[in-house]
Amino acid sequence: MLVRELVSRFEQFAPKSWAEPGDPVGLQLGRLDAPVHKVLVTLDVRPEVVAEAIEIGADFIFAHHPMMFRPAKNLDLAIPQNQMYATLLQHHITVYGAHTNLDSAPGGMNDWLAAALGLQQCVGLVPSNGVGATSEIMMGRIGDLSETTTVREFALACKRYFHVDGLRLITHTPEAPVKRVAILGGSGGQFYPAALAKGADVYVTGDVSYHPGHDMIAAGLNVIDPGHHIESICKPHLTAMFQQWAQENNWAITVQASQLNTDPFTFL
C-alpha cells in the first residue's frame, strides 16, 4: 500500500483543517506516494527514534509532534537535526505529524488523557480555532471523577496514571476537595481561564511557567503539571487504531509503537 492510503483514512478521523493556525501538521518528509510496509508510531521524531525505525525496518514514522516546528536555516549536517533529516532520506523513511488536529479530534488525544484519569461525562474545554471546526471539535476535556478526593491525593494519582516520576503541583490548598477536573495535553497553561469558567477544581496540563503559575493561584485554581510527555499515551492508541484499519482494509502493513522514552527531563 501507499502512505497516502493510511494518511487519507487518518485525515477522516482528524482532518488537518482542525489544527490550530500555523501548526505544521501533515507530511513532514518523504512522499505520500511512497510504499509503506511497516509503521512506527511515536510521540516525537528524534535521532534515537529514527535509529529505532531503521533497526525495525520501518518505512513510515507517524508522530504526534511535528518534526519541523522550526524551519532549517541551512543543511549543515554537523547539526544533529539536519543529520536526522539526511538519515531519513537515505533510508527512504516518510514522516507524518498530527498535532493539534489530533488534540481536538473526538476520540483523540484529550479523550485518551481524560479516560486515563477516569473522568466521566466529559465535554470539550476550549473551542478549536481550526478551519471548519464545529462546536464539537474542541481541545481539552472537562469531566467528573467517580469519587471526591483531595488536590494532593489526585496529584499523586496522576503520577500513577501517567507513569511519571515527578510533577509540579500549583496550589495553596492541597487538601481542598476535587471532583471536577479539566485536562489539556501539551502546553495548555494559557487556557486556564476556560477551566475556571467551567468549574474545574483542578486543571491538568503541561509546561506551566512561573508567572502564569502565580496567576492561577491568585485566581483560586489548583493546577497539576505532569509534563508534556504524558501525550505519549497516544502511542498505544494510535497503534491499535491503525491495526484495526489495516484489518478492515486488508492493508499489508505492520504497525509498532516506539519503545523509547523521549521525555527530555529526568527527576532526581
From TrEMBL:
Keywords (A to Z) from UniProt: Metal-binding
GO molecular function, one term: metal ion binding
Coiled-coil portions: none
Residues reported to bind a divalent metal cation 2: 64
Gene3D superfamilies: NIF3 (NGG1p interacting factor 3)-like
Entry's Gene Ontology cellular component terms: cytoplasm
Cross-referenced Pfam families: DUF34_NIF3
Residues that, per the record, bind a divalent metal cation 1: 65, 103, 228, 231
NCBIfam families, per database record: YbgI_SA1388
Complex formation: Homohexamer.
Family: Belongs to the GTP cyclohydrolase I type 2/NIF3 family.
Protein name: GTP cyclohydrolase 1 type 2 homolog
Protein source organism: Levilactobacillus brevis (strain ATCC 367 / BCRC 12310 / CIP 105137 / JCM 1170 / LMG 11437 / NCIMB 947 / NCTC 947) (Lactobacillus brevis)
